[in-house]
Amino acid sequence: MGGGVRASQSGRDTHPSPQPPPSRGGEVFHLRRAVTARRLPLRRRLREHGLDGVTLLLIPAVLFVLALFVYPFLYGLVLSFHPKQGGALANYVAFFSDPFLYDTIFTTLWLAVPVTILNVVLSVPVALRVRLMRRQRLLTTILVIPITLGTVMVAEGLLTYLGPRGWLNRTLLEFGLVDSPIRLLHNYWGVMLSLVITGFPFTFLLTLSYVTGIDPSLEQAGAMLGARAGRRFRQILLPLLAPGLTITLALAFVQAFTVFPSAILLGAPAGPTRVISIAAYTAAFEQYDYSLASAIAMLMAGVQVVIIVALLAARNLAFRGPVSSGKG
Amino acid sequence: MSTTRRSLTERLWAIAIWTLVGFFIVNLVAMIGSVVVNSFGTRWFNTWLPAGYTPQWYALAWNEFGLPDILLVTLEVVGTVVVLSGLIGVPAAYAMARRNFPGKQAVMLLFLLPLLVPPITYGIPLATVLYRAQLAGTIWGVILANLVPSLPFVILIMIPFVEQIDPRVEAAARVFGASTGRLFVQVLVPLLTPGILAAMLLVLVRTIAMFELTFLTAGSTSQTLVVALYYAVFAAGVRPGQSIDAMAVVYMISTLIWLLIALRFVNPTQIVTRAKR
């Protein structure tokens, strides 16, 4: 084939036409390819960008999430600026001028922040120990049960278990640890304990998945160089765990912050555990003020975003070393 | 090497951790146990165990709470959610795993958000929209609301399963002239069966236990078991506590059976870590 091309070129050279010299033949070839590429059918050009029949399979899923997740969120945002009465910001003004409403933020934080910290702080040492176990399956299976059962079931279980005649109070009385049954229901502690029961397994399993991702030889190297357990944790494990722990903290906080059924069933929904989700629910389904309810839901999302951004910023400040800055 | 010998502090530390884990598990088991025991108990006052045992509370719960209807609605909702999220989610996961296209990151974020944002946050605007569309209160409203987290969940769980399949298998099928539809039915679905089963079972468990979205969108005839349980606990005192616990046991069994089957296909840690990235 090469010989044929050369023959035709030599044939052209005999004509006095402005043909490019043979040395530039390659460029012409490229030019021609570019021209034909521009003439390719649309379908083929799209395929070169990864868009073909297979990519179209995504369309139903994308449309569904857009219609039932993104659109309602934007609708709620717009609706929150169209209050029943007053100007565009009336809902937000009403929220921040009524202590019965704005206090729900602090009530919720007062529950969510301690329980998140407690769950994560407990999860890390347990996960580091369980990592060394050969048969983790039984333990992880037991711990996944409360997550699966969900908060309503845990609330019903705790109502029976923590009640004045429940097994916990019986045990405490039997061992003489208390004189009269302790009150753990219909107050702060009931909600707190339900958040520990569903939250700890969640943070633990998440932390375990991050901990098992750390190469054990790094810690062995530290041990061989004489670092003791505490120092190995602070200087080797913690920096490696920091990104994962930040995400765990964020997810655990967001879950605890949106506590809903157990705050009603186990707490005192009129007072000490009137969390923000109760305020939003009451506005929507008892006062039928969807606009105010949307505003509260947006504020709920806003607090979550603020806390998550703060957590990410804190991580970047605390661990700026080469370990957390990149993966290679 | 001498590093295998553990120091005293390390041993104490280990004991402390196992005590903590043991304490948690004992309380968890006691919590579930007291519900089960109470649901069978006749009278239970100042004793460790009830005075006698009877199955009558189950009969009472079955009739008083209208459990047959509730179980039927639960089955319809869960079944439809599982089938629809599979039909839409598996092809979408295949596209996400096999194609690189502009805006893929944005699409990924779109699928991650419904899993990361807690249901009550987007549930209230979603319920508002569904009420405006006259869908809330009907079984289809409940199904649509439950699909919001289920569909992205199926997609994210299926992507790694698709990535495990050798693309040459698909190429071979294409060479022999298989269309995308035929490729799916005859090549991909058989190869993806374990992944599809795992995803479907986890969606099943999650939908049975999904309280918030169902609660916000369900009417009196479209309640699932978990919402009915909530109302029963909320109105405690109207009916004997034992029959509420009997209902709770029915709920527990209907969730845990599927969990145990699902755990044959996936690791427990995977249930929570799907949403980690």
TL;DR of this structure?
The complex is a heterodimer of chains A (328) and B (277). Chain A has 328 residues and is mainly α. Chain A has helices at 2-13, 25-38, 42-48, 53-56, 59-80, 90-97, 99-130, 137-161, 167-174, 188-211, 216-224, 229-257, 261-265, 276-285, 290-318, 322-325.
Please describe what this structure looks like.
The complex is a heterodimer of chains A (328) and B (277). By secondary structure, chain A is mainly alpha-helical. The longest helix of chain A has 32 residues. Helix content of chain A is 74%, strand content 0%. Chain A folds into two domains: 25 residues, no CATH class; 226 residues, Orthogonal Bundle (MetI-like fold), CATH 1.10.3720.10. Chain A is built from 16 helices and no strands. Chain B is mostly helical and 277 residues long. Chain B folds into two domains: 53 residues, no CATH class; 217 residues, Orthogonal Bundle (MetI-like fold), CATH 1.10.3720. Chain B is built from twelve helices and no strands. In chain B, helix 3 packs parallel to helix 6. Chain B starts with 7 loop residues before the first helix and ends with a helix. At the A-B interface, helix 4, helix 5, helix 7, helix 8 and helix 9 of A face helix 1, helix 3, helix 4, helix 5 and helix 6 of B.
